[in-house]
Structure formats: structure tokens, C-alpha cells
Amino acid sequence: MRLRFLGKDPDSGDHGRPAVWVDEETQDLVIQGVTADTATTALPVQDSPLPAHEGVVRLPKHMIPLLKEALEGTKPE
């Protein structure tokens, strides 16, 4: 696996999150972020069960351009 770092939230300072990578082999997105609080997590699990090995991550709105860049840089199958 080889990850290409796209960037991190410039407002995070030295904390290093949230951040986005693209897996060069699979074109999967890898996202690091703050685990959502209990109230936020309760909403998505109404639509999609949350297994113990998964989590809900919240990204700030100003990271949308970075996600768009990540999506545009991946190759569809």
C-alpha cells in the first residue's frame, strides 16, 4: 500500500488532523479526523449499522475542497 498525502486542515495547527490521503493502488480515500460525539454518531446509525470496528468521523466544511481534489484525482473503475 502506498498513500499519497493530499493535505490536512490548516486550522488544526500541530495536531495533524483532519487529513486526507489517496491509496495509490486502490484509489481508496483514507481520512483521519475527530471521532464524532455520541449524539452525532446516533444519527447515521439509524440508516446504516455501525460495526464495532468502524467509526463516524466529522470533517469541517472548509475541507470540502480538499475532498473534491481527492475525488478528482482518483480513477474510476
Quick take:
The protein has 77 residues and is an alpha+beta fold.
Number of DSSP strand runs: 5
Strand content: 15-25%
Order of SSEs: EEEEHEH
Fraction of residues in helix: 10-25%
Q: Please tell me the total number of domains.
A: 1
Overall average residue pLDDT: 85
Radius of gyration: 14 Å
Task: Based on Cα principal axes, name the global outline.
Answer: globular
Major β-sheet profile: 3 strands, antiparallel
Low-confidence stretches: none
Number of helical segments with 4 or more residues: 2
Task: Give the helix/strand class.
Answer: alpha+beta
Topology:
Blueprint: E1 3-8, E2 19-23, E3 29-32, E4 34-35, H1 38-42, E5 57-58, H2 64-72
Could you name the key traits of this structure?
77 residues; alpha+beta; 3-stranded antiparallel sheet; two-stranded antiparallel sheet; 25% strand
